[in-house]
Amino acid sequence: MKTETAPPPQTVPANAPAATQTRLPLRGWGLELARRWNGGTYSLFVVHGNIFDLFPVQEESSVSYVPLKLFLVRRLFPERACLLYYDINDRLTIGSTDMQKRFFEW
């Protein structure tokens, strides 16, 4: 029986041009949320638990840790025109100032 092995994954050096760099891989709940969103069957998500953690976002050659809302805007949904968040304490908020501007133009 013949078995094939996959070639080792290629890594991008930290000083490589930004055009060739890839984003950090998603794991756990972020990967599941992205799969469900890209599947097209869900348009509303309830995120609960420890929502005050910091999440990694790759910016050019460095990694920074940002709050959940920025993680969703920058990493999971960077192509979205508008993201709305509802928090009992914070009420309804919009993902960024650019999104807020577009929202009120609509």
Task: Explain what the structure shows.
The chain has 106 residues and is an alpha+beta fold. 28% of the residues lie in helices and 17% in strands. The protein has three helices and four strands, in the order H-E-E-H-E-E-H. It has helices at residues 28-39, 68-76, 97-105, and strands spanning 55-59, 62-66, 84-87, 91-94. The strands form two sheets. Strands 1-2 form a two-stranded antiparallel ribbon. Strands 3-4 form a two-stranded antiparallel ribbon. The chain starts with 27 loop residues before the first helix and ends with a helix. Mean pLDDT is 79; it is low at 1-21.
Unreliable stretches (pLDDT < 50, length at least 5) are 1-21
β-strand amount? 15-25%
Shape estimate: globular
Helix fraction? 25-40%
Report the sheet with the most strands, covering strand number, pairing sense and barrel closure.
2 strands, antiparallel
If strands are numbered along the chain, what order do they take across the biggest sheet? Answer: 1-2
Radius of gyration: 17 Å
Q: Please, how many helices?
A: 3
The N- and C-terminal alpha carbons lie at a distance of 62 Å
Name the structural class.
Answer: alpha+beta
The number of E-state strands comes to 4
Question: Keywords for this structure?
Answer:
106 residues; two-stranded antiparallel sheet; alpha+beta; disordered N terminus; single chain; 3 helices; globular
Secondary structure: elements and pairs:
Layout (H helix, E strand, L loop, with lengths): L27 H12 L15 E5 L2 E5 L1 H9 L7 E4 L3 E4 L2 H9 L1
Antiparallel strand pairs: 1-2, 3-4
Summarize the structure.
Helix content is 28%, strand content 17%. It contains 3 helices and 4 strands. The protein has helices spanning 28-39, 68-76, 97-105; strands spanning 55-59, 62-66, 84-87, 91-94.
